[in-house]
Amino acid sequence: ASRDGYSRNSRSKAAELKVEHLAEGWQAATIAPTILHLDNGSRQQSQGADAERFLMVLTGRVRLEYADDVILLEQGDSIYFDASFPHTIAAAGRTSARVLSVTPSPC
Predict the structure, then answer these.
(1) Residue whose C-alpha is closest to residue 87's, from 103, 106, 107, 105
(2) How confident is the model at residue 49 (pLDDT cuts 50, 70, 90)?
(3) Cα–Cα separations (whole angstroms), residue 4 to 13, 61, 102
(4) CB atoms near residue 97 (< 10 Å)
(5) Are 62 and 21 in contact (CB under 8 A)?
(6) CB of 16 within 8 A of CB of 39?
(7) Residue 50 has pLDDT above 70, yes or no
(8) Quick check: 6 and 46 in contact, CB under 8 A?
(9) For the whole model, what pTM was predicted?
(10) Which long-range contacts (CB under 8 A, 24 or more apart) does 26-32 make?
(11) Distance in angstroms (rounded) separating the CA atoms of residues 63 and 65
């Protein structure tokens, strides 16, 4: 797992997840905004470290697996949820996606 509590997995060698930390270097940050760059086939699985999470799809389509639900999000869609439950975020379809993700900052 990484310092933000999430593991980076991919289904194939070609699939890649890039995480862009937007507030890196801020000493007293209470939130951790990131942009997830999800290639087709890349996934981000939670480790249950966060209490809450906000996602907004900037480009592409995203599949959010949350508890027993599968939620498809389109460009411009957003969702706020209890991230202490296991969840997985993946690019949906055959294209990549960019997602703004905001979680509490790991202290």
Answers:
(1) 103
(2) low
(3) 23, 23, 11
(4) 25
(5) no
(6) yes
(7) no
(8) yes
(9) 0.79
(10) 29/105, 30/104, 30/105, 31/102, 31/103, 31/104, 31/105, 32/4, 32/102, 32/103, 32/104, 32/105, 32/106
(11) 6
Q: What is the CA radius of gyration of the chain?
A: 13
Q: What is the pLDDT of residue 90?
A: 93
Residue 36, phi then psi, degrees to nearest 5: -90, 125
Q: How far apart are CA 99 and CA 38, in angstroms?
A: 8
Rounded mean pLDDT, 71-94: 93
Q: Distance between CA atoms of 94 and 59, rounded to whole angstroms?
A: 13
Bridge partners of residue 21, in order along the sequence: 34
β-pairing, 97-104 with 42-46?
unpaired
Task: Give strand pairing partners of 59.
Answer: 98
List 38's β-bridge partners, or say none. 17, 97
